Amino acid sequence: xxxxxxxxxxxxxxxxxxxxxxxxxxxxxxxxxxxxxxxxxxxxxxxxxxxxxxxxxxxxxxxxxxxxxxxxxxxxxxxxxxxxxxxxxxxxxxxxxxxxxxxxxxxxxxxxxxxxxxxxxxxxxxxxxxxxxxxxxxxxxxxxxxxxxxxxxxxxxxxxxxxxxxxxxxxxxxxx
Length: 176
Known about the structure:
The structure is a single chain. The protein is an all-alpha fold. It contains 10 helices and no strands. It is elongated and about 55 Å long. The relative contact order is 0.14. Keywords: Cell membrane, Cytoplasm, GTPase activation, Membrane.
């Protein structure tokens, strides 16, 4: 049976169990992203995600599962902006201007397609810093978005059927 057929069977099985779409998306992300990974996701790793948003974001797989949850809530722009800022901090100085412009246009400006939820003062300060960019140009806005995720999305993620189902499934597999 092909990998694609297994995915379709998995979706049908999840629908039969009446699992929410966010749970299915999280499981599918895991299956598609790590189908042949020797180091499978463990219940221990998933439990560590509940210790802090920092620990969740430190895990590549945690980022992916959290991002799928945010997509189900229509707020993935926060995670995308945070990741773009992390990548931006690694930028060589001769590429700063172009990357700063892209991040500003995509996430910060008032009519951005993926506009992040930041206050007017932070938006204006970030706009000025993006015009003459440094590696710290987006730090204030990134911190604001991080706090928003930490206080709002992250607690809902930990209580979500997606996270709890994933954790329960992995714990059940550990007991086998």
